[in-house]
Design a protein that fits this description.
The protein is built from 2 helices and 2 strands; from the N terminus they run H-E-E-H. By secondary structure, the protein is of the alpha+beta class. It has one domain.
Length: 83
Amino acid sequence: MSEPDFSRLLKPAESDQDRALRRMADAVHHLNLAVIRAVDAGLSVELVRASRHHDGSGNWGDQMVPLVRVREAQADVTDQAAA
């Protein structure tokens, strides 16, 4: 048997903006999955703008931080179960 000829699959040219947008979309997707996991684990999560980044030429982007809250009722149930 002869070995198949494999060749590298060329990616289409991607601009810096396209690459940055794709990376941000991937990161937001991962963030959303993390929020789902946190909520499923019993936490409340709110994303709040912490600052805004400017590049000096009119472009800007919000930078976020999570605010996380644990329900008091869950802590009470956990304490009672431990007793």
